Amino acid sequence: MGIHFGGDYNPEQWPEEVWAEDLELMKAARVTMVTAGIFSWAKVEPRPGDWDFGWFDRVMDGLAGAGIAVCLATMTASPPPWLSRAHPEILPEDADGRRRWPGGRQHYCPSSPVYRAHAVRLVEQLAARYAGHPALTLWHIGNEYGCHTRHCYCEVSAEDFRRWLRERYGSVDALNAAWSTAFWSQAYGDFDEVLPPRTAPTFPNPAQQLDYLRFGDAVLRACYLAEKEVLERLTPGIPATTNLMPQHKPVDAFAWAAHMDAMALDFYQDPYVPDDHIRAGYVFDLMRSARSGQPWMLLEQAPGAVNWRPRNGPKPPGAMRLWSWQAVAQGADAVLYFQWRQSLGGAEKFHSAMLPHGGTDTRIFREVCELGRELAAVPGIEGTRSRAGVALLADWQSWWAVELDSRPSTALDHSRIALEHYRPLFEAGVACDVLPPQRELSGYRLVVAPNLYLLTAPDAARLAAYVRDGGQLLVSFFSGIVDEHDRVHPGGYPAPLRELLGLRVAEFWPLDAGRSVAVGGDYAGRADLWSEEIDLEGAEALARFTEGELTGRPAVTRHSYGRGTVWYVGTRLEPALLRRLLDDVRAAAGVRPVLPGLPPGIQATVREGSGGHYVFLLNHGTETVEVGLPAPMRDALAVPRSAGAGAGAAAVDRVTLEARGVAVLMEP
Amino acid sequence: MGIHFGGDYNPEQWPEEVWAEDLELMKAARVTMVTAGIFSWAKVEPRPGDWDFGWFDRVMDGLAGAGIAVCLATMTASPPPWLSRAHPEILPEDADGRRRWPGGRQHYCPSSPVYRAHAVRLVEQLAARYAGHPALTLWHIGNEYGCHTRHCYCEVSAEDFRRWLRERYGSVDALNAAWSTAFWSQAYGDFDEVLPPRTAPTFPNPAQQLDYLRFGDAVLRACYLAEKEVLERLTPGIPATTNLMPQHKPVDAFAWAAHMDAMALDFYQDPYVPDDHIRAGYVFDLMRSARSGQPWMLLEQAPGAVNWRPRNGPKPPGAMRLWSWQAVAQGADAVLYFQWRQSLGGAEKFHSAMLPHGGTDTRIFREVCELGRELAAVPGIEGTRSRAGVALLADWQSWWAVELDSRPSTALDHSRIALEHYRPLFEAGVACDVLPPQRELSGYRLVVAPNLYLLTAPDAARLAAYVRDGGQLLVSFFSGIVDEHDRVHPGGYPAPLRELLGLRVAEFWPLDAGRSVAVGGDYAGRADLWSEEIDLEGAEALARFTEGELTGRPAVTRHSYGRGTVWYVGTRLEPALLRRLLDDVRAAAGVRPVLPGLPPGIQATVREGSGGHYVFLLNHGTETVEVGLPAPMRDALAVPRSAGAGAGAAAVDRVTLEARGVAVLMEP
Amino acid sequence: MGIHFGGDYNPEQWPEEVWAEDLELMKAARVTMVTAGIFSWAKVEPRPGDWDFGWFDRVMDGLAGAGIAVCLATMTASPPPWLSRAHPEILPEDADGRRRWPGGRQHYCPSSPVYRAHAVRLVEQLAARYAGHPALTLWHIGNEYGCHTRHCYCEVSAEDFRRWLRERYGSVDALNAAWSTAFWSQAYGDFDEVLPPRTAPTFPNPAQQLDYLRFGDAVLRACYLAEKEVLERLTPGIPATTNLMPQHKPVDAFAWAAHMDAMALDFYQDPYVPDDHIRAGYVFDLMRSARSGQPWMLLEQAPGAVNWRPRNGPKPPGAMRLWSWQAVAQGADAVLYFQWRQSLGGAEKFHSAMLPHGGTDTRIFREVCELGRELAAVPGIEGTRSRAGVALLADWQSWWAVELDSRPSTALDHSRIALEHYRPLFEAGVACDVLPPQRELSGYRLVVAPNLYLLTAPDAARLAAYVRDGGQLLVSFFSGIVDEHDRVHPGGYPAPLRELLGLRVAEFWPLDAGRSVAVGGDYAGRADLWSEEIDLEGAEALARFTEGELTGRPAVTRHSYGRGTVWYVGTRLEPALLRRLLDDVRAAAGVRPVLPGLPPGIQATVREGSGGHYVFLLNHGTETVEVGLPAPMRDALAVPRSAGAGAGAAAVDRVTLEARGVAVLMEP
Fold it and tell me: What ipTM was predicted for this assembly?
């Protein structure tokens, strides 16, 4: 079957005579799958209950005839004008009470029973009609949940929030305790008094805010599940997914993973951000880890420029190929784009497409065809998996909590801090999983836990047990501070980790904007953003502050605990310093890179399984480099086009990678 | 009659005993015209239908007695408190649904039938009363349309928008096609479903936004025309105008020109912006061009400081005189100020006036009197006209469309780009018209078309015909991309200009903030903001990028087409480089400056007609300079105060201009 | 009795078993007073009319038993959820019409009769119950009035505003005159037409805005007075106060002073702002001056970090002690904190407390205990007072008026300018009162009047009389411009001060952002922000501009007037230059520092009275310094802990102050 290749297909934008050309050109580009119907609601139901599926039947039949699999959208992402006109109460409202209007997309309150009923009705029609259709391969539920409407604060949402709270807490006393409502005279006498955290004169209750973030995630998932229930009922056996977004705060990918038959991602690397492939690496590893290594799908990327950043640069030659192979190298079994044919009108007409405004005689279409050819030429990758010796812990709960207001510093950007800890692992060429703290950790040689501000006592105990049993753990600043209700763990910071870390944090010293401090000892350099006044209680100091009010106090510590060791970093080290520390920690944990001795900028990954053993080498740098292999292998991409799959290429022990070059090596 | 001189006159701010002094001082300052009544509604109609015109009769009679012409305002710019209290639905709403309240001015929804009915009722009273009054010279309809309330998004506006759309499109199918509603499931089943582009979760439909900008302009014009219809009926023969604002996005000056008996402008040069006189030059030339060279009126300027910028500097000595003469030099037949006497209270009390808080013993009042004397001393300028060999194309349609969201770059500031192309022409001393692309171009030696993003096929064809017939044309980047519905012209960018320009733009490469690239060849230097990947199809490259991903690609091209030549600039050249290019293009077109060999900073213009032939020399620099004349002329401003009009000054062949100096030369 | 020491006590956050420990630890820390009940409304009235005071009785009794005085809050600062649910109309609205919701605190419209009725009802219960309770020492009405909800613009507020205007103006004609409504057609026919200055299309009427600021202050005071009336009735003899905030624009401390039995302040020095103790000095002096030298109370400060700034640094060792003593040195008789025990949950859990999360074994708790010991060791300070030879004039009226929109410059920050004039007096070690211009000035050797933009003719006449009778006065720029209705005083700027100053300001030349100009003469250096074109009319120029359009014009002048002298500064001098000028002015006025020859960074103050004569020395610097005393004194803080009050310390004639060191010297 191979790696799936294709893109979003929106035939309703074009007269029917164009569709035949679409099929011809898709075949030329070796397209194997398209996502169809994402924005077709208004066309299949132009008036309430007035269904018009005939045109879509012809689309489906055409695709089936061309041998192209369809990832069929449930069409519910953008309600048609008639629906919001008849039911303006489905429109979302922001925390200031301002309604968000139609004209774009995703203009619905996710708690709206009206919206959900109409959506379910549509999905029932769709599933009944295309159950058993030969093209139907996968369901694509909704679209980019929470992308534009992250949270709604309307009265309907308020009522739904109260229902959710009743289920969560059972009694209003439990709610009052969880939300610490004794402060500021906020005790509720009844659930009916509770509101969303709409704009208040000052900081709204943080536990209320935190629960609203949880509720926001749950309510989007409820939309997804309402549709999924229909699909499971009417088209059993057809898997379903939805396209998640990278580092997307409103949607907890780990919580959704259980409900997705395959993880699926939209990812748009920014050609103007140097090293954006490291962000890609982080998100791809998270996708792969979320369902325990199961291959995932890159459901959307751009062949060239996007249109929604302030300044949208095209991808330079080779970049799209490199970044597509990066997804595969990190576990993707599908490489799709938004979109097949570039729109002439509408809000995304300047978003690049596989078939650009300029037609087939364009660099983009040529690069698309070439990538299609390459993917088709290397069969057997699909289904293979990777193994990692390091786990980086990431947790939406901490993310949500630590970025609330009324904190010691508003400058903590949780997802950036996570990425800053991932970067040295990526640069060192180490295979890494990205997991929530609740997962089983015993299989990892090293666990890295950056800024787990919210950490429940059981999760803290599991970290301690991991170390006690011989694990190596690195924890960074402002971790283990509050419980699941954003209440401080009593007993001195960070109470549930204090014994494990062998230290106490006496006070937080967030650094002022633009200020940094010197650090000396084993790790000498500069640090910024945050510092802590650490009292050692068994740990040893590896580095100390050498400047400012904390001069002489520990900045980095190490503590032997049971059969393992735990490091703690009480500040933000500059990147080179954090890299040095993580190199040492890795060495202590016995974690080795995928390939030894790689030049800078070269990413190496391994996928293996019954399909074979693949080593991927990707040159993210701007120079041609030579990479020596530990053993002779064949480069599947070096096989001439005419030859069969993987056939014929000679085994080599060195590979030359041009700038943005890719090699896919197989055992000979 | 001479150049009109005067200002806004708001006698209602003062006790009646002050009015006599006003008339005396106006005569001392040689005031010939005042604009009266702009904010008098609440005083002439203190309660609904309860008219009190007696005091205004006395104002009018006093002015008539003093021989001062009245530009009579229709008084509709600021509805009185009783009207918005009785009809709160006339208050405008922004795109977020927030009402805009009384307390300032212009607090009305321009679509409001209630507001319009009250306005028309008032204008009928006013016109009936002052028809035939000896002071009545000109009508001033409304005031600064769209200055504060640019667009209203209320329900009344929504209904009016739907009416406008029905007229424009006839059928909802036509609307759907024009707005590309197939994308994002936006197809309408009925006009009743359509709304203004209120704040949506993400980019609202761009064609909807574009049409709302058109509608906004049309609806302001409808307010103007409703009043004008009354005036034409009740005071036939009295011309009417309104004060437009410079580079004012919501009001398409070219569209309004057809309905104005004379173009009229408010212009406030900023003393803290170096070279703001070049912006003045651009706007003045646009005013002059909009009605084909007919003299226009500077209806408002400040004698000194304004009060509405963050920091408001006074005009240094001589600046007000220089900038007033600049207006005359560029075709104005009237020089008026806001306002006659400086207010003691209210929102504009720190706005300078002809008669300042400090009274007559002030620099401002002395400079005002001196300018009044000078203008009176040079009769015959009025009615004369200028000729230009260059046309700069400016188009509100492109402006509206290119600055919408979801574009390759949000950094394109259309009116700044237009000004950047005007600057080298101004600095070179070339006479220039500023026109929309629909005007007849055959009379120009050179046409400059900067950033005409929206260009209809017929307009593109007219440009091609102009070149084919021997014209010289310079087009700059991101032009000819979309049609009137913001739909991309299919066929490769810029499809309708591709044959004319002899090239194709393969991809847009907007430059990131703070980044520039090197350009080499005939024009070597730097460029920023934007670049394009150009494939030559007949054109030759005059300059190429020498840096970045586009290294070696054309940056500036030239193409012979028919009997003419067209240049294309695919990036934003730094100012000196654009100046060099435009100098060469001008030379090729045979366009010469008004006077040869002028020193930098000297502006020269010519006005001629039955009244005579005038050469204006203005020194915008800070040094004294000498200017040689091609032939001996008399300097009308050098005539001593006691002598008669233009009498007695000897002809000279050199003129000395001090910093901020002015000379008005007449043939001897 | 001594200086009161303690903090906010919020026992409802803790289980009752913690309260006994609280009392023990309070005694250990020598706490003498706590503020209780601030946020207890929801707990004492969990349902409407359902009172539960039993728990609070036990709190009061416990405190009484421990000998701790209670500053009893009226509990009205944060209405419980049931109240805003039953009466959503009590929720405030901003100028855009957006409601502010519960979830934080202070979510009430201060004009709301519903809110006020419920508040009064609660206060009646409270006062009746605790009248005569042995712990009840002082009433704390409301809390931080206007902190979050500065102004409400809802319909209830609008109606209240109209009532206030009717009382203030009597007739709508008087209102129209005061508000200059002739401009922009704003004349009202009836008070019913008037609205709050909600967001308008452009600048709302400035006099309307100014009156709304006055109304806002008055309406908060009305809330305070409604509760005070109950207390005076039910607990006569118990004084009442409320905690004001520093430089808090919505609340005119001088106007409130008449209604407070003692001035009381919340002040949070920012450890990250160098010299923030000078801001403290300014505010402390204002507190002391507001009730003519009566000792005031520091009701809230932080023992360490706060949680509501973007980045919240802890107080370094010694800082809390130093800044607490600074309050006492400047006249405070109470030093309290927010709060006693650090919260585990809620919006202020990261705000430091006397008893931190880390418990008693923390630097903060140790510093708290040490300070409690010190304060207890120096009896007799309470009730003593200070005398000052300099008065700095500060006026909320000018503050409100000068920062409105439509001014010559939006960059004038009135409270910063006042502080800039206070700084050189503080640095020179001079005792200074901070007063409104209406107070008696004859007792001062020197009066400093910075930027009194709004100055009534009578107040201007009083300033002139002060100088005529021999006073020394320094006035700085943009003073004396408008009357109480924000109407310009006619007659040339600054008309009511022109004769006194011996000059006229011809035009304002606000300087552009980032621009400064040179000044030469007796005071040579640089100036920025503002300049003025000054015509001398009797005054002499001490410094002149030597750069820019005003070159050669006076920048600083001096004028002999009657038996006194007045200085005028027409620009913002750089700090060192203003210091030099004020040093010279002080010398001319014969104002000497508290102690001569102090090293930089040392603050010295005197308090005296029947209790004794105290000299306070505070080292705000980072170096150890020695200070010589004019006569031998005993350092009360040097007394060993075991000795009795003030007993035993030997008299010394030099004191050594470490960084952040404090000495309290008494006559031997």
Answer: 0.96
